[in-house]
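Here comes just one.
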Amino acid sequence: MSHLPLPKSALYVCVDDDTGHRSRLEAITADTIVIAAPADAKKLVAAEVGSHLTVSWINEDGRVVLPVLLERITTGPAERWHLRPLGEPRQAGRRRHERGGGGEKMRISTLTAQPAVTFNSTLLDLSEKALRCWAPASDIAVGEELHVQVMLSTGVVSHIGKVTIVREAPDGIGQHIVVSFHSLPAPTVQIIRRYLFVWSSRQARQPEPATTPDTAGADADPASQAPQSRPQSGRTAAPARL
């Protein structure tokens, strides 16, 4: 493993939210890194063996992040976490969370209308903070709260979020909607991290097709283009009432 800081360097561990829990690099082996358990480790209920975490540190160019798997915890006078890197360290840019995936069928439900109105939609991409989906044209507006549900290969994400972007799809059929999640429970964060790890591993093994991305992805960054299979007529959503 290359580009890691020196032993005894300060590290920060992101477990289930944006908080960086201070730690320290203790050792580097052939395929793992060993860190000191954060001082507040006992309060981090999501830090279980098998969890996907992120470690970060600061170098001369800024913040560096590394996705890892918590393989083992050793106790004793000083608790140690044994982490297996799931990629190479990378310089962190504006986007704080990995984003990708897409193609799964999903449902979005309004919360303001009673009874709730549910639309079938298609996931375009997602991160730990937001998702972007395609949906039929409707009167959903920025600031509205929605319930979203999507079946990923690693589990079901079912949560409430706030609409932050609504724009016409590039081909003029339907809309692209970005929903920022309210605080996600730790199990849901793990479902998303595992899904993105599988997706990114698959992407690394195949050349990327040429696309013309839309500019409003989850986290409001460029993302994959909209899926090809959509309703071809009508500009009014045909919701299914619960």
Remarks:
- The chain is about 10% helix and 40% strand.
- Confidence is low (pLDDT under 50) at residues 221-242.
- The longest helix spans residues 186-204.
- Helices lie at 186-204.
